[in-house]
Amino acid sequence: MNHVTISRREKFVRRSVEFILACSGFLSVLVTLGVLYILISKTWIFFKQVPLSAFFLDTVWTPLFSSQRFGIWSLVLGSMLVTTVAMLTAGPFGILAAIYMSEFAHSRIRKILKPLLEILAGIPTVVYGYFALTMVTPALQLIIPGLNGFNALSPGLVLGLMLIPTVSSLCEDALFTTPRDLKEAAYSLGARKLSTIFLVTLPYSRSTIIAALFLAFGRAMGETMIVAIAAGMKAHFTFDVREPIQTMTAYIVQVSMGDTPQNSIEYLTIFTVGTMLFVITFIFHAGSRLILRSKFKAKS
Amino acid sequence: MKEEKWAALKERIFNIICFLATILPLCFLLWLLADTFVRGFARLNFNFLISLPSRFAYKAGILPGLVGTLLLMFVTIFVAIPLGICAALYLEEYAKDSWLKKFIELNVSNLAGVPSIIYGLLGLELFVRMLNLGPSLLAGGLTLSLLILPVVITSTRESLKNIPSHLREAGLALGASKLSVIRRIVLPLAMSQIITGAILSISRAMGESAPLIVLGAATYLAFVPVNIMGEFSALPLQIFHWVERPQAAFVDNAAAAIIVLLIILAIFNSIAAWLRQHHEKKRGGL
After folding, report:
1. Is the Cβ of A119 closer than 8 Å to some Cβ of chain B?
2. Do A24 and B90 touch (CB under 8 A)?
3. Which of A111, A128, A159, B237 falls between 20 and 30 A from A118, CA-CA?
4. How far is CA B214 from the centre of its chain?
5. Which pairs with CB-CB distance under 8 Å and at least 24 residues apart come from B180-183?
6. What is this structure's pTM?
7. Minimum CA–CA partner of B206 in chain A
8. Within an 8 Å CB–CB cutoff, is residue A237 touching chain B?
């Protein structure tokens, strides 16, 4: 037998390369642990000074005023308002665009439109913030009298514009991969294209569409710059999209822009708000993944 | 036959609605971009690129932001890209199908869903305070690196998955070690695709502003940030600063800075698109 002898040096090199690669793989775990540690430890200190009831059972958020109140719901409601407007924009537009691209568009047109739609997701959010504040809000003020210069409507619409490709690309894949035999079965029974779309293709892709909407929802809650620029900086418990509001993310920006002494209660609030944001976005992101995974499992 | 006609008409209408839903957002974006270009174009000249910000809008420039963005890019290239490629190599080539691999994969996809501002909070505590880097360019670059790490890992893994396994097996059958198969066969073949993914991730990092604001980066910096341990700013932060100003002249500056930022990003994306096409041609026969 002819053994290939491997030098000790070579063996060492192979081992250490594998070790370095494994360490890089573990780094992502460390990042997650780091995020969790920082958010939880600061939130812990915060709740030692502020009772849970003052946080969850109040609707006034004024940690930066002399009369401090910590009712988180006005920030959560602010985020929800903007996100709702964004989802009402990105949802219908994204799903209809996906239907157009997978069912109606010629493959050549599809090849042009797809990268063009992706541009929407590639533009920096600070640029979208500029659009919302200097162009969309003034344009909306012409139609909606009483619309404040800072409001939830305009950043919501612009955020929805940004999220259209998030919804459409996942939906399009799902519609496109609907098994041919299902569609052909419908056609052979005499169904037209329209009824096939609504009775076969869309129901078949339902779970992926919901997953795409969950994903977009999570992103909308976490979006920062558009709302920090165009929604205002005043926490406000309101359901009126014409009023200035503050989101969880915009509050973190507001505190970061000022000089807040380290480990003061104001400084701790941004981590507590961050924890709240993390939990909400995590639920939607994980939900989206669970739906997708159960679908793939069901298929195989 | 009347019903038949009505059904065809309905289908036609729905087709048009779907078409409009695709095209209207694009037209809307075109309007926004066109207006911004018209507004900013007047302010755009060479002096604008090489001047410091100023209290006077007509004198102000974007040099600190531009240099800051380029240096941040360098930090992310040297940190996020190698780490991301190594992690992807581990997951694709070395890790066995175990709970450990699944756990890391779950982690990476979770991290991809964490809002960017949370990375800012991580960077603020970890880099700025614990490691005592201060609100420095290095801290900013490291934070952005962690932010795009999951994106780099995912895109690199996709490129590695595209290398057919029979090529790896051919190398192994000839007696090559796993390491040399990776070095001589897998990486050279996957390289152009890996680079495409890396460029796209970096262009994402260059547009970020929220995590940098949380770190304490300056939105107004009156000097050029050349010291990696010193204060810094970035182009998106400069835009944020000008958008917030009430005077219209500063908003014109913001429009001009947006043009510069979008041009840089467009160049990056064209390089990536060109590489992808080039790669598809080369791989055509494989």
Report:
1. yes
2. yes
3. B237
4. 19
5. B182/B89, B182/B93
6. 0.92
7. A124
8. no
Determine contact: A135 vs chain B, CB below 8 A.
Answer: yes
Q: What is the pLDDT of residues A127-186, one digit of tens each?
A: 999 999 999 999 999 999 888 889 999 999 999 999 999 999 999 989 988 888 888 898
In whole angstroms, what is the distance from residue B149 CA to residue B139 CA? 15
Nearest Cα to Cα of residue A133 among B257, B210, B34, B36 = B36
Q: Which of A35, A113, A253 sits opposite B22 (nearest CB)?
A: A113
For residue B210, give the H/E element and its range. helix B210-215
Q: Which of B83, B150, B214 sits opposite A252 (nearest CB)?
A: B214
Model-level ipTM above the cut of 0.90:
yes
A73-299 topology per CATH: MetI-like fold (1.10.3720)
Contact B86 A24 (CB under 8 A): yes
What single letter denotes the amino acid at residue A218? G
- A233: Cβ contacts below 8 Å, ≥ 6 apart: A150, A244, A246, A250, A254
Cα distance between residue B125 and residue B123, in whole Å: 6
CB neighbours of residue B166 within 10 Å: 9
Q: In chain A, where are the structural domains located?
A: 8-49, 73-299
Q: Could you tell me which chain B residue has the CA closest to the CA of A284?
A: B113
Q: Does A139 touch chain B (CB under 8 A)?
A: no
Instruction: Taking each helix axis as running N to C, give the angle between helix B137-161 and helix B63-89, from 0 to 180 degrees, rounded to the nearest 10.
Output: 40
Q: Who among B28, B121, B149 is closest to A38 (CB)?
A: B121
Contact A175, A201 (CB under 8 A): yes
